[in-house]
Amino acid sequence: MLNCSRLICTMSVISIVTLSTVTHAKDSLMIEGLSYIDKTPIQVDIQDGIIQGIRAKSKLSKPTQEPLYIAPGLIDNQVNGYASVSFGFGGGALTVEGIRKATEALWREGVTTYFPTLTTNRHDILLANFATLARAVKDPELARSIPGYHLEGPYISPIDGYRGAHPLQYVRLPDWQEFMAYYKAADGKIIQVSVAPELDGAMDFIRRCRALGIKVALAHHNGSAAVIKQAVDEGAIVATHLGNGCANLINRHDNPLWPQLADDRLYASIICDGFHLRPEEIQVFVKAKGVDRILVTSDVTRFAGMTPGIYNTDDGKTIELTVDGMIRYPAQQVLAGSASPMTKGVGHIMRVTGCSLEQAFHMASRNQARVYGLTDRGELETGKRADLIVFALEDFTVKIRQTYVAGRLVYSANEADAQ
Ligand SMILES: [Zn+2]
Questions:
Q1: 3-class DSSP state for residue 204?
Q2: Which of 50, 140, 307, 348 has its Cβ near the most Cβ atoms within 10 Å?
Q3: What is the Cα gyration radius of the chain?
Q4: Among 334, 314, 339, CA closest to 324
Q5: How far is Cα 11 from Cα 79, in angstroms, rounded to an integer?
Q6: How far apart are the first and last CA of the chain?
Q7: Which helix (H) or strand (E) holds 394?
Q8: Please, is 329 exposed, middle or buried when counting C-beta atoms within 10 Å of its C-beta (0-12, 13-18, 19+)?
Q9: Cβ of 44: how many Cβ atoms within 10 Å?
Q10: Dihedral sign, CA of 165, 168, 173, 178?
Q11: Closest to 74 measured CA to CA, from 98, 118, 109, 120
Q12: Where are the domains of the chain?
């Protein structure tokens, strides 16, 4: 929580001017930095949380030691938890305060919009946690960063490998009545559901989701080419964490990867943490889909940011967080989510594909805004909401210096240093 006077204190990094102090709503800001598009100096003018203009400058009025870039805030469509808070907590352990804690921690990593993701779980826990999320977003500040939620499962493949780390005892067939209970508990704010299309009833489920405007993603499945085509015909639009949620051994001709890669109507979300996919897989996925159809996602869990070691998950499994940030589920030799935030994904996709900084932000912000209809964000453009990040970039490592949501400074590295 930063007020106006603390905002002015951050002027050492970039030039910020409050032109009016009548009310917060009248505040104006001017932010300078290098454009993420072409690395030239720009000035972004903001009024009432909206970008009013972007002006090219011959040079920055206050050059900084390290080059600082300005880009749209990151949009993460798959956040299972963060900073010790899990959206899958049972027993009432997920609280509004916890959701705020996770959101503030994500702001530190430049994430200005995210979808709390609930995975395969007990019915009463899913109901309770959607209700808690619905309570949390009554706070307008949280609502600005949480436009809705992602339900991944429980309607996924029960088969080992495809199921990943989702607990078998809670995996089930699509059940519209049950889903409607979640939808109501969530105040109608379920933005995306990830399902396995080969399950009995899945096509009808996808059709009904589409009618409600919910984006359907394919995940943790072993759908045939015909089934995948039918699912996309019915409205599925995203392949969730393509290349993961798949058995280690698959048929080289008949497997779910080729049809999902081949269908231009499907966006592919990919986990770019350096562990979930080989560099060659990322290269091929980006070549096949094109920069406009890739969604960089984090799939972070509550272990993100914690000390390496052995931990027990909410459903009693033993997982290992390694020193280099990998979360392994040794019992099935699969990964169990990630501990690397979106900033890592931006750097990693640039490193392995050679894409530009601009293209990396298309894949980590703009495309997400387009898929999910978040038309007010995702790009540095006049008229968009001022969700901005200021950051340094060194050896493919993104270091967030400031994060703004709707023109409001929600994180400053300088302030953190001073504490
Ligand atoms: Zn998954």
A1: helix
A2: 348
A3: 21
A4: 339
A5: 32
A6: 14
A7: strand 388-394
A8: middle
A9: 24
A10: negative
A11: 109
A12: 4-72+379-418, 74-369
Which pLDDT band, with edges at 50, 70 and 90, does 27 fall under? confident
Is residue 258 within 8 A of residue 246, CB to CB? The reply is no
Alpha carbon of 40 to ligand 1 centroid (Å): 39
- What pLDDT is stored for residue 26 in this prediction? 56
Instruction: List CB contacts of 219: < 8 A, sequence separation 6 or more.
Output: 152, 153, 156, 194, 195, 196, 239, 240, 241, 245
**418 or 385: which leads in pLDDT:** 385
Is residue 142 within a helix (H) or strand (E), and if so which, with residue range?
A: helix 140-145
Q: How far apart are CA 311 and CA 316, in angstroms?
A: 9
- Quickly tell me which residue has 């505040």 as its tokens: 27
What is the fold, at CATH topology level, of the domain defined by 4-72+379-418?
A: Urease, subunit C; domain 1 (2.30.40)
Indicate the pairing of strand 294-297 with strand 267-271: parallel
Task: Give the Å distance between the CA of 156 and the centre of ligand 1.
Answer: 10
Q: Compute, in angstroms, the gap from residue 116 CA to the centroid of ligand 1.
A: 13
Contacts 24+ apart (CB under 8 A), 283-291: 283/352, 283/353, 285/242, 285/243, 285/261, 286/349, 286/353, 286/355, 286/363, 288/261, 288/262, 289/261, 289/264, 291/355, 291/359, 291/362, 291/363
Q: Which residue has the tokens 């209809």?
A: 373
Query: Residue 177 C-alpha to ligand 1 middle, in angstroms?
Result: 23
pLDDT of 67? 95
Ligand 1 centre distance from Cα of residue 323 (Å)? 22
Rounded to an integer, what distance in angstroms lies between the CA atom of residue 193 and that of residue 117? Answer: 9
- On the question of a common fold for 4-72+379-418 and 74-369, the answer reads no
What CATH fold (topology level) applies to the domain 74-369? Answer: TIM Barrel (3.20.20)
- Give residue 101's Cα distance to chain centre: 16
pLDDT in tens, 233-289: 999 999 999 999 999 899 999 999 999 999 999 999 999 999 999 999 999 999 999
Residue 267 Cα, ligand 1 centroid: separation in angstroms? 16
Give the Å distance between the CA of 403 and the centre of ligand 1.
28
**Distance separating alpha carbons of residues 160 and 164, to the nearest angstrom:** 7
HSE (CB half, 13 Å, CA atoms) of 233? 8
**Is the Cα dihedral 99, 104, 108, 112 positive or negative?**
positive
404 within 8 A of 73, measured Cβ to Cβ: yes
